[in-house]
Design brief:
two-stranded antiparallel ribbon; 6-stranded parallel β-sheet; 54% helix; alpha/beta
Length: 273
């Protein structure tokens, strides 16, 4: 898709969500910090209560996502169908600082963003539902969330492993408890496929937030990279160190491709709402 077409989609997203959006690496990325985004998501989710409107879908992009979208138009269309895309990776922030008139203020990594939203949700009476990971991991993640935020209204959770025949019951169970925010962790692009496929059915949900490996980190199963590596955009290197057999080949392919996309498919000007 030409950069001009992506810019048009970015303008549409800016209007829908009420935030500036910039084309970075070929995708429309929200120009917003974590605090403002947390407030905006809760505002929109709560405003949708009882309206019967379809759920909004908020997702995230990193270098791997940029590479996937450039290589597969079907995956690209999925991301362009989301209502908002956060920058989950520091290289996107670095590229925006180098090439954009209005750079990204910071990355909005879901592993951190969950806590930003959870801290302010109780005062708003907002409710969460967690969907993804294994049964053991999602239960541990739910327990830890309730320990960290005793006043948080966690209305349910479910493993991400279920059959196509069970999928309808999972959707019905989520709608039954009316969560304002559904945190969906199934890995990219599977979680976004699920969100786009079911956002019309999930009319008792305000916002679906795709979450990648959030539940592994929230449960304590996986450690985060040191802060200095996160700030330097080297979290991928820490992940390779932790799991070289699974991740080394992937990053060796996607990182150079993502760097090329960031340099060649980043627009100078952001679209305003």
């Amino acid at each position: 898709m030409p950069l001009s077409s992506t810019t048009s989609r970015a303008a549409d997203a800016a209007i829908r969500f009420g935030v500036p959006v910039a084309t970075i690496g070929g995708l429309p990325i929200a120009v917003i910090d974590r605090t403002a985004s947390a407030r905006r998501i809760l505002d929109l989710a709560i405003a949708r209560r009882g309206t019967g409107a379809r759920a909004l879908v908020v997702t995230s992009a990193n270098g791997q996502v940029l590479s996937m979208c450039a290589r597969d138009q079907r995956i690209r269309d999925l991301f362009l169908d989301a209502d908002l895309i956060h920058a989950d990776d520091m290289p996107l922030v670095f590229a925006s600082r180098l090439l954009c008139r209005t750079p990204l203020p910071e990355r909005v990594a879901t592993t951190d963003f969950f806590h930003d939203v959870a801290r302010i949700a109780p005062a708003r009476g907002a409710t969460f539902y967690l969907l993804g990971a294994t049964k053991t991991v999602i239960e541990q993640a739910a327990r830890r969330a309730q320990t960290l935020y005793p006043d948080l209204k966690l209305v349910g959770w479910h493993s991400g492993y279920f059959t196509p025949e069970e999928e309808r019951d999972v959707i019905a169970g989520i709608n039954l408890v009316h969560p304002d925010v559904l945190w969906l962790g199934m890995g990219a692009p599977a979680e976004l496929m699920f969100a786009i496929r079911h956002r019309d059915a999930l009319r008792a949900v305000g916002v679906i937030k795709t979450s990648g490996g959030l539940f592994d980190f929230l449960s304590g199963k996986s450690p985060r990279a040191p802060d200095w590596m996160q700030a330097a955009g080297l979290e991928w290197a820490y992940r390779i160190y932790r799991n070289p057999k699974r991740l080394a080949g992937r990053y060796l392919v996607t990182n150079p491709h993502a760097a090329f996309l960031l340099l060649t498919r980043t627009a100078h000007r952001a679209m305003q709402p």
